[in-house]
Amino acid sequence: MVDYRVFVDSQLCKGCGICVEVCPRGVLELSRLSPRTGYMNPELVGKCIGCRLCMWFCPDFAIVVEGV
Amino acid sequence: MVDYRVFVDSQLCKGCGICVEVCPRGVLELSRLSPRTGYMNPELVGKCIGCRLCMWFCPDFAIVVEGV
Amino acid sequence: MARRMLLSGNEAIVYGALDAGCRFYAGYPITPSSEIMHLMAKEMPRVGGVFIQAEDELAAINMVIGASWGGLKSMTATSGPGLSLMQEGIGYAVMTETPLVIVDVMRTGPATGQATKPAQGDLMQARWGRHGDQYLVVLAAQDPQEAYDLVIEAFNIAEELRTPVILLIDEFIGHGREVVVVGKDVVIKNRRLPPPSGEWMPFDSEDPRQASPMPLLGKGYYVLVTGSTHNEYGYRDVHSFETHYRLVKRIKEKIIGNLDKMPKPIVLGKPDDAETAIVCFGSVCRSAREAFYKLRERGFRMVFVRLRTLWPLDYDHLSRILDNVEAVIVPELSLGQLIHDVREAVDTSTRVIGVNKVGGGLPIYPSEIIKVVKEACRK
Amino acid sequence: MARRMLLSGNEAIVYGALDAGCRFYAGYPITPSSEIMHLMAKEMPRVGGVFIQAEDELAAINMVIGASWGGLKSMTATSGPGLSLMQEGIGYAVMTETPLVIVDVMRTGPATGQATKPAQGDLMQARWGRHGDQYLVVLAAQDPQEAYDLVIEAFNIAEELRTPVILLIDEFIGHGREVVVVGKDVVIKNRRLPPPSGEWMPFDSEDPRQASPMPLLGKGYYVLVTGSTHNEYGYRDVHSFETHYRLVKRIKEKIIGNLDKMPKPIVLGKPDDAETAIVCFGSVCRSAREAFYKLRERGFRMVFVRLRTLWPLDYDHLSRILDNVEAVIVPELSLGQLIHDVREAVDTSTRVIGVNKVGGGLPIYPSEIIKVVKEACRK
Amino acid sequence: MASIAFLGRGGQGIVFAATITAETLFNLGYYVAQLQSYGAEVRGGSVLAHIVYDNKTIENPFIEQYDLAIVLHEAGLKRWIKHLEKSKTIIVDKDLVKTRMDNMVTAPIIENVAREKLSGSENIVAVGIAMQLLLGREAIAVAKSILEKRSSPEKNIKALELGTTIALNLGINMA
Amino acid sequence: MASIAFLGRGGQGIVFAATITAETLFNLGYYVAQLQSYGAEVRGGSVLAHIVYDNKTIENPFIEQYDLAIVLHEAGLKRWIKHLEKSKTIIVDKDLVKTRMDNMVTAPIIENVAREKLSGSENIVAVGIAMQLLLGREAIAVAKSILEKRSSPEKNIKALELGTTIALNLGINMA
Amino acid sequence: MSMPIHPSRRYLREETLPTAFCPGCYNGIVMNALFQAFKEMGVEDLRDYVFVSGIGCSSWIPSPYIKADSIHTLHGRAIPVATGVKLSRPELNVVVIAGDGDLASIGGNHLLHAARRNMDLVVVMINNLVYGMTRGQLAPTTPRGMKTITTPYGNPENPFDVARLLGYTEANYVARWCVCNYIQLKNSFKEVFTRIKRGFRFIEVYAPCITYVVRREKKSPGEKLKELMRRCIPLKKYYSLLDNERGDKIPIGVYKAEDKPGFLENYRAYIRKAMEG
Amino acid sequence: MSMPIHPSRRYLREETLPTAFCPGCYNGIVMNALFQAFKEMGVEDLRDYVFVSGIGCSSWIPSPYIKADSIHTLHGRAIPVATGVKLSRPELNVVVIAGDGDLASIGGNHLLHAARRNMDLVVVMINNLVYGMTRGQLAPTTPRGMKTITTPYGNPENPFDVARLLGYTEANYVARWCVCNYIQLKNSFKEVFTRIKRGFRFIEVYAPCITYVVRREKKSPGEKLKELMRRCIPLKKYYSLLDNERGDKIPIGVYKAEDKPGFLENYRAYIRKAMEG
Ligand SMILES: Cc1ncc(C[n+]2csc(CCOP(=O)(O)OP(=O)(O)O)c2C)c(N)n1
Ligand SMILES: Cc1ncc(C[n+]2csc(CCOP(=O)(O)OP(=O)(O)O)c2C)c(N)n1
Ligand code: SF4
Ligand code: SF4
Ligand code: SF4
Ligand code: SF4
Ligand code: SF4
Ligand code: SF4
Ligand SMILES: [Mg+2]
Ligand SMILES: [Mg+2]
Questions:
Q1: Residues C251 and C137 placed together within one structural domain of the fold
Q2: Do chains F and E touch (3 or more CB pairs under 8 A)?
Q3: Ligand 6 centre distance from Cα of residue B63 (Å)
């Protein structure tokens, strides 16, 4: 079984929280403050199944999901 | 049975011939030249049944049909 | 009853219009005029008037025309792009002698330009934006208080002369908030209606400076309103020279012959004594006046002219004021439009110097005008 | 190869445009310009170009803009009401530096006016009809031959300066038929394209009098065209003063700085020696010239100026010509628009007298001009 | 420089008459300027069309009188009365024009048109009259060749010839 | 005549801060002029709003320097640098503004806002600072009564008071 | 016996007759039907009616011929002007009469949005298949392949079936009649003034331009009328046919007839809300 | 491990990011779907594509974000400009992306006539239910009763169901998706660039404005997305329901998919006729 990593671009993320809410596993959390933008960024806090919903629905091209 | 008379206003008639062509009895003829307008006006040449098609379809309010 | 309020120019326009009796508003949103629409949307239904958001500006101006013939004092507000789209309708209002008010909150153009930034680049368009020989009234306010005052004037002139009136403000005024005294005892002019019977002409008048009474629809006058050339009763006459010439001359005369009915220019300083003049309109006048006072303190012999009526323009009056000066400074938030008028009013030997600045939401500062005046006087 | 043809001005426009390389026409019918459309409808498909009847004038001008960016020399034709509707689009073409040609066959306005009758009342609108600071080129022809010649010029200027050009004719010229020499060896200027690679700016140029090359779509330039204020690469910048001011100043300079590229005025008679001048444009020039010759024969000291470029206007040149005259006669088929320019170019002591006549399809006759000149000289 | 005017009511083909005349003159080698004034509707209303021709470029086509004017209907007359008063020769239809002036000559145009069953071609009759009076047979021949390329050539050519005949019967000498 | 400017990034509520300030001054009996400059989007971009107030009519609100400027974000700064250079006192957020000038005083605005869970109300904190520095408690009381009639009064009044505290801690005397 | 007065003349401005329409132009027939409707409705005079038109031959019907208040607007702008009139004077019957070019080409946006709003107007569109006034150019209603002066090689565009499309909007009433359907047309007029008195009511009248359509087909106005009578079929029947069976048939009838509240009633309720709260 | 490159970025102008859209604005999701379609189509870069937009938030998608030729036109005029581009350069794919206000209010006439002509364009309309750019005014798509800044007492107008109406025109392809239907939306984009490559192809994307609709409902962008997922139902099903059963459901799906020749092919045939005769 593949493991997935979730990369967040802290320059692009606007902290809208969509990724967190669409994640079917609830494994994202809006908990990291970006000092540059002042927005809260998501972090992976559990096991990602690589569905990429967060990536599709992130309106700011800020999330990339990749298998490792 | 009523008799019908067909009145033509020679100031208004433009000689388009619609009345002649829509008359179901074919009793109108475009045969009278109006000296004022230069247009040919219709004349009743047979027995009118008072259907008033000529009156409705005359686009120039030039025909009136009346029972006598 | 007079009340002091803290209002943006856009808000002041709404209260002024309602105080003037405006009961119909149709518009289409556009920055920086939208707040007029927003407040109208809220207030108009409350006074039982009609507010409608049109599908575009073409619809807006034509709805206003319809409502004005329906008998309501009517207006719209927009900004440059919308004004461009309204041109044909405005020309129709001129030709049919339809009273209405258009507020143009000027932004930085051309085209989409800088939508949130002020400018004064619609002056010429307000006068000349339509085809054909058409004359209407163009006013300009310098601040929210004057926006309130002049929108009332605009309705009065519109109704009295049966003409569209364009009131120009700019984004500074529209969005700037200041203390405005509203509800003063203003004179409100209402529409003159025709006699219930007897001979009268809806589209002519003996005195070309007077508009004929405006018939109300639905009262059996059997009004014929048309944008084609028409005779005194409204019948189309698209062949005769006489009918056309009489009509357009009269409409022109109704506007340019009524200079005395229009808001007067504000003149500070002594024309006879002045070496230099500043001529300006709109928000720019505020910096310009400060510059004028400062310069005068420093001994410059100056006259300051603030135009509030931009069309019809009293060229003769301006000529007389500027007769003795050597240089005229014309500060404008544009590349220069009023400057053409000033040149028209003075001799070719008079130096006419534009202070032109536009874009980025920057005003012309008093210091910039002072600098130009000093340079002009050095020569 | 030169050919003599008997053509109306409207027909001459079509042949001129096709000779200039026009391959896209979008329009909406309107009297008295429709024959341009009719002949285009017939001829354009035959040369493989595109003709489309738009749903309205807004669509027409915007289709022309799109096709111009697509790479085709493009045009439309209309009359006053249509020109009013095109204003916003024209301003967009100015701002985006889109080459295109608009022919306005002027009729008697305002509004619907007298649709089949000639006039010259769209002059000011052609210059100033849009919001914001915008400058473009306005030419005027006096007869079908010149309509043919100037429409070619219009395309050349449009392409060279990347600007909309408005060519004014009137119903007399549009419907009047005369002998026209077509297919003379005319210089045709084609669009300057950018280098296939390397640094270049689609929306700026070192020399403000030069337009930058115009990129072709679909070639990997990734062009950004916008009517908002934009930097040299097309990126929107709706906040900075510098970007806006540089852009609009450059666009203005590109027009007013290129007076030498525009069709020159025709001057008859000796300015130094003249007491009276006639200044005119368009079809009126023909009566005016006859009046000029007749008056000169009778010993009047006169100069005759026929303007072919109405915007940019060479005020200085006009000033110099009119420097010595005591009176200037300005015949116009309108209530007076060019007269403002003349007043701007002369001193307030110079008498500027309009001969204004409009409506009913009547021209200004030579006798009418002669009468005014005589009266002016009597004083 | 010479000039011809056709006047009448919308629908009588006045502009077409002027067009054919202008083309005829053009083919004869003249410089030509043709101008017309008509209503929005083309239908009804008065129409005037005039042609100025010369051996050199036409400086100014805006003239105030005509060498020859042909008037086919009273409707066309009043608007241009001043021009007509100053004109040299005016041919008017004897039936459809009521006005009379010193420089007018009446001609039985409509009457003949009706008799010859050429209704609708009175305009071409007028062309025939004008060409015959001003330029004679050569012009008629050219006009004919032009009409041949247009619709209803036969009827029109008959009308043209009718015009020639009427012209000759008028007994005027324009040269 | 005195003036206050608020600068920041779109979304920080700069215009609202100016609005509340202007209303406060108005209620205190001053003549007030409030002007702002922002982008089409309101979102992002820099925003500047300033208020001029006086005991008499404001002749000219177009000023080139401020008595007090409060800068909440670096983004707002560059466009107005010339104005700021000429201004008397500038309070800048110690974290979000990097630029330093002689007339600047840093304040821990955002830091405190975050700590007090008042995010989104940094604008009202700025109002508190400005009012406290320029006019003292009376102005704060008026501002409070204004905020009470707007949405989220509690949060905003807390923010206003935070502003007062920050102002007092700055140890500047503007009078 | 002197000439009796034509019943239409009560509603006409005497001094404007004869009309400037071409001989045979069907516009006059539409007028007869409209006036007969008024007569049958017992309307004495038209002082409660305001007619609004655009620019085009058909727009001349009210201006200057109908003896009523009328506003002859700019090309394409009849509907917004009519909207302004209606909203300012709800008690008046506001009727738009204009051409297919005016209403459906340059004025298409207003048509669409007035229908969406179910604006309280009666709109009569004379579809003569071309731009009559400007001499016969392509209209959005011109059939495929038809030659006009701007489509000299045969119209390559799809025609706009206006009534059918409006049938899918919020309009209360949509019908199409041919000018040859005199009785139905007259009854339809009565319907929109008596039975369905609110909301957007649209009647398309198919009435080919005599000069630029019928004459070019080398037909007389009367012949064409008789041809049209043959071609009209009820729209139910028409739409049940396959495309290739439809031939030259013209679907006529009522696309839609509802009596929902129009814009005005909704706006009145809106005002009440504003005044209350 | 450094941040991998987001697949959308190949089609974006790097220097323009982050976008100026509000946090959570759904416009970015539409962009992802479009770009993923391009990627799956094997489109390396967008040099054969020209994007044309109007004025409005959604019109910023191509200008400046998409790395392609783009023309940012006036408010409402994207379609005529796009038409000019397409007719002058038939070999290019011309795609309009604009808002509901831009395309269906001020630009409604062009939309209608482009659909009638079956003009060879792809048009993507972002329906965010309001005018976003100008701060949340009424749009023609705003639901009845919704409060906006210009309808403070609740919208009294009927909303315009754009896709449904266009389904009755000559357009080749008409579909509506909600922004939550990511896969269908992406596939729909592929469809109009690969399977149906001609004629007028219209995709409405239902994507409520975060700032002026969603936030006013006191919802987060993510919550709203999930709500929308619940509300979307296939249009067949939707239209089989009675009015009162429809509730807050949003009909999604393809209204129409045909492959008739578009305007361009018809015009080419027209040119051939002109050249021959
Ligand atoms: C803005 C504008 N564009 C064009 C015209 C010219 N014009 C007058 S009527 C007309 C079309 C008329 O067609 P339609 O509406 O179908 O009426 P019809 O004459 O066929 O009854 C046009 C294009 C105009 N008057 N105004
Ligand atoms: C002629 C004109 N009128 C009005 C405007 C102002 N304006 C800009 S965008 C817009 C509406 C935007 O709404 P929509 O098209 O739905 O796009 P959104 O922002 O909602 O994506 C308006 C009215 C303008 N730019 N030009
Ligand atoms: S890929 Fe799917 S499971 Fe993984 S974080 Fe994103 S939404 Fe959650
Ligand atoms: S969806 Fe994107 S922008 Fe929004 S919080 Fe997640 S990563 Fe940030
Ligand atoms: S009333 Fe009927 S029968 Fe009599 S003439 Fe007229 S059409 Fe013929
Ligand atoms: S229908 Fe009327 S106008 Fe036509 S010929 Fe008969 S009476 Fe005359
Ligand atoms: S042109 Fe056609 S529509 Fe117009 S009046 Fe003549 S026949 Fe009627
Ligand atoms: S206002 Fe609405 S549509 Fe515009 S960017 Fe913000 S969320 Fe998106
Ligand atoms: Mg029509
Ligand atoms: Mg929207």
A1: yes
A2: no
A3: 7
- Best probe of the H interface among G79, G83, G112, by most H CBs < 10 A, is G112
**Residue C114 and residue C237 in one domain:** yes
Q: Which ligand is nearest to the CA of A57?
A: 4
CATH code of the domain containing D162: 3.40.50.970
Residue nearest to ligand 5 atom 6, measured at CA = B54
Report the alpha-carbon distance of residue F12 to residue H136 in Å, rounded: 19
Q: Are residues C82 and C224 in the same domain?
A: yes
Cβ–ligand 8 distance for H57 under 6 Å, the answer yes
Rg, C-alpha atoms of chain F:
14
Contact G67 C222 (CB under 8 A): yes
Tokens for G76? Answer: 């394409």
Amino acid code (one letter) for H65:
Y
The CATH code belonging to domain H7-276 is 3.40.50.970
pLDDT per residue, tens digit, chain C (379 aa), is 799 999 999 999 999 999 999 999 999 999 999 999 999 999 999 999 999 999 999 999 999 999 999 999 999 999 999 999 999 999 999 999 999 999 999 999 999 999 999 999 999 999 999 999 999 999 999 999 999 999 999 999 999 999 999 999 999 999 999 999 999 888 999 999 998 777 889 999 999 999 999 999 999 999 999 999 999 999 999 999 999 999 999 999 999 999 999 999 999 999 999 999 999 999 999 999 999 999 999 999 999 999 999 999 999 999 999 999 999 999 999 999 999 999 999 999 999 999 999 999 999 999 999 999 999 998 6
Angstrom CA distances, H193 to D365, H13, H86, H123, stand at 63, 22, 15, 11
Identify the domain boundary among D206, D229, D263. Answer: D263
Q: Which residue has the tokens 């976008």?
A: H19
Q: Which range marks the domain in which residue C299 is found?
A: 266-378
Q: Are residues D297 and D256 in the same domain?
A: no
How many domains does chain D divide into? 2
CA–CA min distance C52, chain H (Å): 9
Domain limits at E43?
A: 2-170
Nearest protein CA to atom 23 of ligand 2, as residue: C29
Residue located via tokens 């006549």:
D357
Cis peptide before D312 (omega within 30 of 0): yes
H106-118 pLDDT, tens digit per residue, is 999 999 999 999 9
Picking from D263, D288, D319, the residue at the C-terminal end of a domain is: D263
Same domain, D28 and D151: yes
D interface toward E at CB cutoff 8 Å?
6, 31, 114-117, 172, 175-179, 283, 286-287, 289-290, 360-361, 363-367
B66, burial (CB in 10 Å: exposed 0-12, middle 13-18, buried 19+) = middle
Strand segments (E) across C214-350: 224-226, 266-269, 276-281, 302-307, 309-311, 327-332
Q: Could you tell me if D246 and D315 lie in one domain?
A: no
The C-alpha torsion from G43 through G46 and G47 to G52, rounded to 10°, is: 140
The reply to whether E175 falls in a domain is no
Give residues with Cβ within 8 angstroms of H39, minimum separation 6. Answer: H7, H10
Of all residues in chain F, the one with the smallest CA distance to D239 is F39
Domain spanning B4-67, CATH architecture: 2-Layer Sandwich (3.30)
Same domain, yes or no: C275 and C331: yes
Nearest CA to ligand 6 atom 3: B13
- The backbone torsions φ and ψ at residue G234, rounded to the nearest 5 degrees and listed phi first, read -60, 145
F27, part of any domain: yes
Q: Do the Cβ atoms of G222 and B15 come within 8 Å?
A: no
